[in-house]
Specification:
Strand content: 25-35%
Radius of gyration: 17 Å
Largest sheet: 6 strands, mixed
Oligomer: single chain
Structural class: alpha+beta
Distance between the termini: 52 Å
Strand order of the largest sheet: 2-1-6-5-4-3
Number of helices: 4
Order of helices and strands: HHEEHEEEEH
Shape: globular
Length: about 150
């Protein structure tokens, strides 16, 4: 089973986030503009896990080089049956650098938009906290490199 599919079906938020490239771009089925970056994408996917019930992947399609995948799914959102597809592209390091989601029917897409809208303050806060943590880790790593280099 593909690692992304396994992580989502296991509802393993850490494994999902670990598969995302830092520069991933998430294109939502209900928002006009894409969301760039790992922190916001991971937070959105956690929100999706909270609002979609009975989530099941029903088919997986991959191109021969393994860098493009389509995962078809079914779920329930606010009592509505939803069908969708996650389109993923993987970078040279095997991380997801592009994730586009499409869903149907319209009534379920509207229910998803409403449910995710109710989550968005929490999603934004989670993304901000994750971005701050990542920046602090980068700064600490840079400081550590500076401390171990020899002066000229």
């Amino acid at each position: 089973m593909h690692p992304f599919r396994q992580a989502v079906e296991d509802r393993d938020e850490q494994a999902i986030a670990a598969l995302l490239a830092e520069d991933v771009v998430f294109t939502s089925p209900v928002a006009f503009k894409p969301y760039p970056g790992k922190a916001i994408t991971a937070a959105i996917l956690r929100g999706v896990l909270r609002v979609l019930e009975d989530f099941t992947y029903v088919r997986e399609i991959a191109n021969p080089d393994g860098r493009d995948h389509a995962f078809l799914f079914t779920a329930t959102v606010s009592g509505r049956q939803i069908q969708g597809c996650d389109f993923l592209h993987f970078d040279e390091d095997g991380r997801i650098d592009d994730l586009t989601v499409m869903v149907r029917p319209l009534s379920a897409a509207q229910a998803l938009a409403e449910a995710m809208g109710a989550q968005f303050d929490r999603i934004a806060a989670e993304a901000a906290a994750a971005a701050e943590t990542a920046e602090a880790a980068e700064a600490a790593e840079a400081a550590g490199r500076g401390a171990t280099s020899t002066p000229s």
